[in-house]
Amino acid sequence: MQELSMPTKYDPQATEEKWYDFWLEGEYFKADQDPEKAPYTIVIPPPNVTGKLHLGHAWDTTLQDMLTRMKRMQGFDVLYLPGMDHAGIATQAKVEQKLRAEGKSRLEMGREKFLEQSWAWKEEYASTIRAQWAKLGLGLDYSRERFTLDEGLSEAVQEVFVKLYEKGLIYRGEYIVNWDPATKTAISDIEVIYKDIEGAFYHLSYPLTDGTGHVELATTRPETMLGDTAIAVNPKDERYAHLVGKTITLPIVEREIPIVADEYVDMEFGTGVVKITPAHDPNDFEVGNRHDLPRVLVMNEDGTMNENAGKYEGMDRFDCRKQIVEDLKASGVLIKVEPHLHSVGHSERSDAVVEPYLSLQWFVKMEPLAEKALAEQQGDDKINFVPQRFENTYVRWMENIRDWCVSRQLWWGHRIPAWYHKETGEVFVGKEAPADIENWEQDNDVLDTWFSSALWPFSTMGWPNTDAADYQKYFPTSTLVTGYDIIAFWVSRMIFQSYEFTGERPFNDVLIHGLIRDSDGRKMSKSLGNGIDPMDVIEKYGADSLRWFLTTGSTPGNDLRFYWEKIEATWNFSNKLWNASRFALMNMDGLTYEEIDLTGEKSLADQWILTRLNTTIDDVTRLSDKYEFGEAGRILYHFIWEDFCNWYIEMAKLPLNGEDEAAKLTTRSILAYTLDQIMRLMHPFMPFITEEIWQHLPHQGETITRAAWPTRNETLDFPQAVPAFEAVQNVIRSVRNIRAEVNAPMSKQIQLMISTSDDQVQHDLETNISYLKKFTNASELLVERSMAAPEKALSAIVTGAELFIPLADLINIEEEIARLNKELVKYTKEVERVEKKLNNPGFVGKAPAHVIEEEQAKAQDYNEKRAAVEARINELSQ
């Protein structure tokens, strides 16, 4: 045990860094590979190496750290594996931005030099992320840290791509993809963020080629008409049956295109006629396939118009839209423009408006993989979603899943292991390049970042080497902690890849949390300027305060609002714990671990606190195992603040200041034992302050991180003490409430008479007179069955008893009546003033309704206060 050198106020900045370094140097977070211990594994959701961690990361990882610390203390062989994601699009965009600022271009630099710059970026920001993990106190096993582009994970990615290709589950083809013109790459459906923007329906009149009339239709993207290759109507629509098979002459382009019949067309929407642009719309693409229509691409990859756009070539797509509308208007083709608020896809990475775009890409055929994963979810070993409702989110996504475009037009990432023969165009896919490499050229594209992230739970363990020790011991993982907004992005993909390549679920449980919002409930964003840097919170209040707020502030699946006031309240809680510990340690008189003796005679307070501790241990363990950390925190908070600090410590002062040495030893031992157990229960929530306090307590072992998790001690259970102590508490609380009601200080002695109606309560109060006298400051105390109520006494009813305190002991009755009469005059004047206003027709007739309601509420409040004062005066005057 260290000597007591605890300052009067807890200083997290002086404490936290030293303990994190201590934990790392002692390798206390390193997984043991102990065959005698059951494994418990969490792999960190890898943050992108593009910048600093935000509050959402802090929430996510703090929940993970809390679980791993608790399980480590419970005797599990814990692996909390760190790692980072290369974040293809985001990182390449950041590196290119940096190069542009230096007057450089990746195209001029070349692929190899650009990748050198990207790796340098990764190293810089990886160190920043590790520093932030340290600030949060994450118990990560850094000896096993992984990166999605490291050698082992790259091998896993190649293995999966090649195997899926060989099974016919990866193919290459021309399809409509979500195209980001800013980053010039395809993105997946779930990387598209939809925003409502002001647009318009442009109503157009296309002329029939035979000169017999016109066909009216509407579009929100008139610039794409340059790529129209058909007009479609529903085959059941009698209005247009006579037109099917005819052609129209496409305005501006003057291209003759057919009118086709297709059930895709909604007869009830608009005019029932739609333009078909197979190269620029996914539904039109399917219609085009059914009718063997040509695909005319009219845009370049950067969103400018190409040679197929004729005179608009080189124009930005939105500038082209404005010009083409003017030209259509001038030629009489534009009938009208109808303003329309519609949902438009934007790239999550660049915020550019996404363009549906015909492109040659690599795809994963999803239906067979999804079917296998969904079938596993019907079995006994299905993945447990917490809360369970999010299983439905996962299932719905998998049931409606579309093929996954996995190629990206980037350099930073896993280069697709496909080669094309320079002469024949033959495609070769393999983990190694073809032998006659001089005749082949490798695909320039890389794989979607999520392709490698989908393998994270098992690739980080050494797969595809299934004999790897970590893979054998720690996979499948135990719990995935993540937000509900990433179920489709990542959770579903890890699940189907794991079942396909390991035959096992990737994790037993998925703990879903919500989003962190500001105090007004708004999503935190750069545009709103309402984001909170977790490092700023730590700098001001310490990591423990932030962690307690994050772990206890919300129930699973729900969003969490950030309030600085709540962080400050947690800071106050930390200081309460700190000061209680200081008091206990100062009164332990150098007690050593070997001297702790819990076998001595125990007072009612001793028995009660030990029993309450047992109950708290059971509740916190049970609730934490169910991931109900908010409720577990509430129970811990109440036990520490109310039971231990406000009640037991106060009552412990009696024996500590007494002459009975045996009672002193028992009290010191109980203080030491209870504080030790509190520190262990609190450690997963607040690791730094608990290590600091625990090191001052009498203890065994080097660190609280490896101390055993508390369990119920049956020999320290005294169930009969709980109701007995509650009877004493009820009396003390009631007396304090009466004193507060009449403003009588605790220093003023009183007579206290207690009339009991229950034999057990009578016994409990009689045997604990010393507590009652001390904490009510009673000069005389009488406890009797069925006592008659004295005159002029204040009373209170508690379970099994009624309390009486003579008024004369509490107050000077004449002075109190005089004071109350002054109050009566004040409230009477207020009542008269408000009622006069409300009885004034001029006021009532002109004032707004809410002002009148406010005055009516005041009148009611003043009348109630006046009535209460009158009643009190009458009571005192009798």
UniProtKB/TrEMBL annotation:
It is found in: Cytoplasm. The keyword Lyase does not apply. GO terms for biological process: valyl-tRNA aminoacylation. GO terms for molecular function: aminoacyl-tRNA deacylase activity; ATP binding; valine-tRNA ligase activity. Its main location: cytoplasm. Residues 812-876 form the Valyl-tRNA synthetase tRNA-binding arm domain. Its EC number is 6.1.1.9. Residues 606-753 form the Methionyl/Valyl/Leucyl/Isoleucyl-tRNA synthetase anticodon-binding domain. A motif ('HIGH' region) lies at residues 47-57. InterPro entries: aa-tRNA-synth_I_CS, aa-tRNA-synth_Ia, Anticodon_Ia_Val, M/V/L/I-tRNA-synth_anticd-bd, Rossmann-like_a/b/a_fold, tRNA-bd_arm, tRNAsynth_Ia_anticodon-bd, Val-tRNA_synth_C_sf. It catalyses: tRNA(Val) + L-valine + ATP = L-valyl-tRNA(Val) + AMP + diphosphate. Transmembrane segments: none annotated. Residues 18-562 form the Aminoacyl-tRNA synthetase class Ia domain. Residues 810-872 form a coiled coil. A motif ('KMSKS' region) lies at residues 523-527. The keyword DNA repair does not apply. PROSITE patterns: AA_TRNA_LIGASE_I. One of its GO terms (cellular component) is cytosol. Keywords: Aminoacyl-tRNA synthetase, ATP-binding, Coiled coil, Cytoplasm, Ligase, Nucleotide-binding, Protein biosynthesis. ATP binds at residue 526. Monomer. Belongs to the class-I aminoacyl-tRNA synthetase family. ValS type 1 subfamily. Catalyzes the attachment of valine to tRNA(Val). As ValRS can inadvertently accommodate and process structurally similar amino acids such as threonine, to avoid such errors, it has a 'posttransfer' editing activity that hydrolyzes mischarged Thr-tRNA(Val) in a tRNA-dependent manner. ValRS has two distinct active sites: one for aminoacylation and one for editing. The misactivated threonine is translocated from the active site to the editing site. The C-terminal coiled-coil domain is crucial for aminoacylation activity. This is Valine--tRNA ligase. It comes from Exiguobacterium oxidotolerans. The gene is valS.
